[in-house]
Model the fold of this input.
Amino acid sequence: MIVLYFFLSSCYTKRDYLVGSLKNTNLFSVRNLTFSYTLGARKIIALKGISIEIPQQQLITLSGPSGSGKSTFLHLLGLIESVQEGSIYFLGEDMAGYSYQQQNRIRKEYIGFVFQRFHLIPVLTVEENVAYFLLRMGLSRKEVKKRVEHALRLVGLYEHRHKKPFTLSGGQRQRVALARAIAKRPKVILADEPTANLDQETGKQIMQILRKMVDLEGISIVISTHDPMVMGYADHQIHMTDGKLEDGDLSPSFAKESVPASNLEERSLNTCS
Ligand SMILES: Nc1ncnc2c1ncn2[C@@H]1O[C@H](COP(=O)(O)OP(=O)(O)OP(=O)(O)O)[C@@H](O)[C@H]1O
Ligand SMILES: [Mg+2]
Done:
């Protein structure tokens, strides 16, 4: 009985937060982020004290040699990996103050991912692939239909909505993956080398769509890339070497160090995710 009480109270009385949209809060504030992988007795330090301020509504490219830590950094920003040392503030809130469950919700609602491999579900059509995660987010069928149509039109794939992924080209599949991320209406899309498997022309088309999303939809995008063409679309280019970021215009000024102003509205959760 006591166990059941604690289980129910953790599900139904815990507070959660709805991320707000004040323009003046940084999307991410990262402080002294260090991360290592353990392989048997070996420890591989992938990030070595990263600090950066990532503003809202910007397209940011992250470049650097293979193994410099780009994917690891994106996984930490996307709350896929847990912070070991240092801090990540998302819209002014220190993610360390959030439970695993709450971080999952934030990731589901506010963060979109586009990977090098498209991770499409082969048995579903284009529109079903885009709709799938929206339905899992609990949106109504009407809302899902509206968002799917909007996202597929934005990436120029509406006419192909009834096709299965295996009948599409690589560029078209990458655009389905983009539509899936856009349809979520996230605050940020984290894209890990999204054009690496595409020819230059198709890569350019993908970048034009991403640029349009930042300018028209107000989404922020952080892209890891080796490609100078991709970097040409950026508002800010950041470079990484051996787990460290080079100093640039997004480096924080520690002289003015303070906890970023919170930008979150409180919301009661009625369900347990
Ligand atoms: N799952 C893992 N287990 C152990 N070590 C890992 C793992 N993932 C990455 N690493 C190591 O962490 C370091 C950073 O890797 P990461 O994948 O973040 O680099 P990257 O900049 O994305 O490289 P690339 O351009 O090749 O994608 C590398 O030394 C890598 O070998
Ligand atoms: Mg990588």
About this structure: Residues 1-16, 255-259, 264-273 have pLDDT under 50 and may be disordered. The chain has eight helices and twelve strands. Residues 56-80+98-253 form a domain with the Rossmann fold fold (CATH 3.40.50.300). The two ends are 22 Å apart (CA to CA).
